[in-house]
């Protein structure tokens, strides 16, 4: 009887944790949650000009990424759009330029799921541009079946974690020599129901639940941000939850959730607000580096009484695995007789 209680108690705690997260989401992550939180925003925080400063945004052709690009371009910043689809990027660029009146918008065609390509792009970018003031890791995906990319990596992990790791790690030297450097990663509140799984980073074990895999990747991003902040004090790192936002990605990857919550979802501008605030405001730069933000405020990275905390050994194992994977791709590029491929800069 005692054994039965041990098994079911874990399931009950999991259900309880998920229920608490969802109820919290209904209150805070929706459009209404944003409207309540925004009453405390100081509009003067974004009364800034960033003319002469440059910002790289992954996944900038739609959703939160595009809304962020428009907001930064309106403030005079140079925008580097990192997008997988060149045609969609061109269309988005035209709209960004029209809305902002800023022509300093550039397209870089890169598939964030291809680790070697990401590294080659970042290396080339460092050589071509003298500075980078802000890196916004926004691109993400939710592939519902376990699929591997051409490099043998699970696609969600390759895009949401490995791509973010390689791009950021490679650009750190450029960021360090730039004025007021910042790195913002768009995560998700879904990570609150996940503990870092260092023994299964690519979700090879057990049942493949894409929503939970995505949440695991988002937990990985939070851990990465905390570790980068410790290792690189010159750069301000932050990770954030945009809330539940009405984006093309959400309607495609989570159609049932989108239909159920459609009237309550935030606009892309509301979802992008904290990203823009973290990237541009002086107030944000004075906050402690490495924190998790929601609606312009740092919030806990674990639910109350949660079992999602990781040990120092687990975190070190996670970082070492990413470092080793990254080195493997760099060695492959160096050994390729054709040499590294040159990314497309438009």
TrEMBL record:
<dbReference type="InterPro" id="IPR036291">
    <property type="entry name" value="NAD(P)-bd_dom_sf"/>
</dbReference>
<protein>
    <submittedName>
        <fullName>Dehydrogenase/reductase SDR family member 12-like</fullName>
    </submittedName>
</protein>
<dbReference type="InterPro" id="IPR052992">
    <property type="entry name" value="SDR_member_12"/>
</dbReference>
<dbReference type="InterPro" id="IPR002347">
    <property type="entry name" value="SDR_fam"/>
</dbReference>
<dbReference type="Pfam" id="PF00106">
    <property type="entry name" value="adh_short"/>
</dbReference>
């Amino acid at each position: 009887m005692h054994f039965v209680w041990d098994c079911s108690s874990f399931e009950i705690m999991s259900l309880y944790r998920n229920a608490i997260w969802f109820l919290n989401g209904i209150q805070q992550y929706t459009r209404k949650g944003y409207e309540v939180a925004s009453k405390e925003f100081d509009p003067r925080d974004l009364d800034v000009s960033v003319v002469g400063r440059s910002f790289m945004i992954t996944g900038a052709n739609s959703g939160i990424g595009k809304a962020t690009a428009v907001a930064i371009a309106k403030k005079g910043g140079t925008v580097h759009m990192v997008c997988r689809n060149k045609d969609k990027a061109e269309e988005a660029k035209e709209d960004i330029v029209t809305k902002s009146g800023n022509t300093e918008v550039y397209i870089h065609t890169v598939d964030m799921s291809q680790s070697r390509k990401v590294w080659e792009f970042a290396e080339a970018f460092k050589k071509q541009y003298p500075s980078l003031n802000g890196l916004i890791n926004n691109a993400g995906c939710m592939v519902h079946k376990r699929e591997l990319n051409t490099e043998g990596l699970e696609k969600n992990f390759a895009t949401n974690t490995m791509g973010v790791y390689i791009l950021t790690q490679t650009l750190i030297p450029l960021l360090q020599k730039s004025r007021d450097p910042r790195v913002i990663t768009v995560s998700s509140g879904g990570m609150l129901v996940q503990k870092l799984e260092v023994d299964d980073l690519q979700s090879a074990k057990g049942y493949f639940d894409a929503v939970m895999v995505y949440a695991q990747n988002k937990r990985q991003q939070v851990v990465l941000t905390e570790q980068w902040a410790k290792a690189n004090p010159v750069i301000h790192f932050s990770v954030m939850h945009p809330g539940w936002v009405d984006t093309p990605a959400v309607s495609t990857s989570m159609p049932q959730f989108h239909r159920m919550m459609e009237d309550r979802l935030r606009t892309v501008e509301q979802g992008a607000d904290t990203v823009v605030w973290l990237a541009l405001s002086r107030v944000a730069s004075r906050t402690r580096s490495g924190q998790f933000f929601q609606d312009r405020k740092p919030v806990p990275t674990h639910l109350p009484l949660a079992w999602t905390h990781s040990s120092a050994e687990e975190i070190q194992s996670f970082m070492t695995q990413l470092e080793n994977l990254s080195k493997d791709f760099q060695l492959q590029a160096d050994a390729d007789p054709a040499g590294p491929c040159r990314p497309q800069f438009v």
